[in-house]
Amino acid sequence: MVKMKDDRIRSFDDLLSDVISAGICGKCGGCVSVCSANLIGALKLDENGFPAYVQKELCLECGLCYMTCPQTHTVREEVKSRFDWKEPVGNYTDVISARSTDADVRKAATDGGVVTSLLIHMLEVGHIDGAVVSTSKDGLKREATVATSREDILLAAGSHFGELPHLEEVGDRYTNYVSVIKYASKTNPVKLKKLAVVGTPCQITAIRNMQALAIVPSDIMTFTIGLFCMQCFEMDHLMEREFLKHWNVRLDDVSRMNIKEDFILTLNSGIKIHIPMKEIEEIARPACLRCEYFANDYADISVGGLGSPENYTTVMVRTIRGRMMIADALSKKSIELRTGRTEEERKVDRLGMISLIEEYAARKRTRGKSFMDKLQS
Ligand SMILES: Cc1cc2nc3c(=O)[nH]c(=O)nc-3n(C[C@H](O)[C@H](O)[C@H](O)COP(=O)(O)OP(=O)(O)OC[C@H]3O[C@@H](n4cnc5c(N)ncnc54)[C@H](O)[C@@H]3O)c2cc1C
Ligand code: SF4
Ligand code: SF4
Ligand code: SF4
User: For residue 160, what is the DSSP state?
Assistant: First the structure.
């Protein structure tokens, strides 16, 4: 977190020194989105995904980029109060374990396919006009896209590898982080007025900051699905070699990756390898190790695999809108609660999921603080 000494307006120069040079920029793209939304065009994301000036002279020193950034916490109190935030993982009204009722979705999904089926349901009944998701492109590479059909949403399900998972295919570097927020801000608000966005906590926080500041086009982002996020990672050729050395796994042998209690690789042979979170920190993005967001506290619903059995999604229902959408999807049977459980067992499951979410959120806060302390010492 950036500590401010006075209340002068901060510009992109301050973002460069307080966040980017300080090594806590998560490359969410929020700053670039608000600036380009104002048609100033002063900023871009550079070839490594970091924000940078295109032309410094174009900067109006309005401070919007600084206030939008999830790492500066400038409007944090406003956002907290809007979402009735409570210790330790924000406000929520329910936590359920659920899955899609559609076999095609379940086959493609990371966990239970709740995200994909909920998005399809919301689109088909008109709650949204489209969804910003991340879809596979050229093997390993994923990119943000606005899905406006069932087919497009289904194509974006899960986090599968394609047929040619070589780092050469993705420019020598693979990252599982995708800047959906930058894409969402490019959407044409004339055509799409109600957009769902699926994103990591840093991205959803940037959207909430924009909404607190009433920056267009955050008004069309009417539903947010927040992924739990311990870390995103990126790998280059050197790390790929380390991967082979430590875990005897080649990327071309991997068919699927997932993050729950630990990091799970499913090999083409069907074998699953569980790698403890601590060990995978080696390939985490440096900013992710300094990040304290885990449970996506300001999303309408937060989702992850944590706490649910295989092929189910853990869903934290947070806002009234989140509650309405989940209730609607359950009543129309697009999704279903974990099967074969009595009401009593569901209550126990709920407590177990909450306890794990709180535990991982605490772990992440402690890790973030300790990496920040090391950085500042
Ligand atoms: C980078 C990352 C880190 C995660 N970390 C954790 C964790 O630590 N613990 C945990 O329990 N769960 C974590 N998750 C969430 C988990 O992997 C599942 O995405 C979640 O449980 C939803 O499962 P599902 O089957 O319902 O989703 P699906 O139906 O498979 O849909 C997943 C949706 O997420 C979108 N998506 C995929 N990758 C990205 C991305 N990089 N950025 C934005 N959207 C994306 C897809 O386009 C799709 O719409 C993480 C997910 C990601 C992408
Ligand atoms: S014009 Fe405003 S939003 Fe754009 S870089 Fe300058 S201070 Fe940031
Ligand atoms: S808004 Fe996002 S991309 Fe911009 S400096 Fe902050 S963390 Fe980095
Ligand atoms: S850990 Fe997740 S929320 Fe934090 S910066 Fe990385 S991607 Fe964003």
Answer: B
Question: In this structure, are 151 and 110 located in the same domain?
Answer: yes
**Whose C-alpha lies nearest to ligand 2, atom 6?**
59
For residues 256 and 332, the answer to whether their CB atoms sit within 8 Å is: no
Q: What's the total number of domains in the chain? A: 2
Task: Give the range of the structural domain holding residue 47, as residue numbers without chain letter.
Answer: 12-75
Mean pLDDT of 278-303: 92
Q: What is the rounded CA–CA span in Å between residue 122 and residue 126?
A: 6
What is residue 164's predicted lDDT score, i.e. its pLDDT?
34
Asked whether residue 275 falls in the same domain as residue 339, the answer is yes
Kindly state whether residues 195 and 155 are assigned to the same domain.
yes
Q: Which one is predicted more confidently, 82 or 42?
A: 82
Phi-psi region of 126 (alpha: psi -120 to 50; beta: other; left: phi over 0): left
Examine residue 3 and state whether it is found in any structural domain, yes or no.
no
Please check the confidence at residue 168 and state whether its pLDDT lies above 50: no
Nearest CA to 361 among 262, 165, 230?
230
Ligand 4 binding site (Cβ under 6 Å of any ligand atom)? 26, 177, 200-202, 229, 231-232, 285, 287-288, 291, 293
**Helix, strand, or coil (residue 183):** helix
6 occurs within a structural domain: no
Please give the sequence-ordered ranges of beta strands (E in DSSP) within 229-368, or none if there are none: 234-236, 254-259, 263-267, 272-275, 301-304, 313-317, 335-337
> Using 50, 70 and 90 to split pLDDT, how confident is the model at 174?
low
Identify the band that residue 139 occupies on the pLDDT scale cut at 50, 70 and 90: low
CA of 361 to the centre of ligand 4 (A): 12
The predicted model scores a pTM of 0.93
On the 0-12 / 13-18 / 19+ scale of CB atoms within 10 A, 190 is: exposed
